[in-house]
Amino acid sequence: MRSIRLALMGYFLLLVGVALGAVFFLVYRTSSETLNARKAQTRALLEAQHQSDCDDARAALDQRLVRSAQTLANLARATPTHFETLYPLGVLGIAVAPNGYLAGPLWLAEGFHAPLAYQLYRIHPQIVHIESADDVMHDQDSDYFQTYSAHGRPLERSTSLGETWLTLDQDVRKKAELLRENFDTLELRPGHMVRRVTLKATVPRFGAPFLQPLWRFPLNPGKAKFSRGGRIPKSFDATAIFVQYASDTSGLDATLRDLKSRLDSDLEQQEHATDEALAGLRTRLLGIGGLAFIALLAGTYWLVRLGLLPLRRLSDAVSRVSEKDFRLQVEAAGLPGELRPIASCLSETLEQLRRAFAREKQAAADISHELRTPLAALLTTLDVALRRPRSVLEYQEILEDCRTTGAQMTQQVERLLALARLDAGADHLQSQKVNVIDLATQCSDLVRPLAEARGVTVRCHVDGPAVLSTDPDKLREVLNNLLYNAVEYNRPNGSIDLTVLRDNGTLALEVRDTGIGIPVEACEHIFERFYRADPSRHADSLHAGIGLAIVKGYVELMGGTIRVESSSAGSTFLVKFPDAE
Ligand code: ADP
Question: What predicted TM-score, i.e. pTM, was given to this entire model?
Answer without folding.
Answer: 0.47
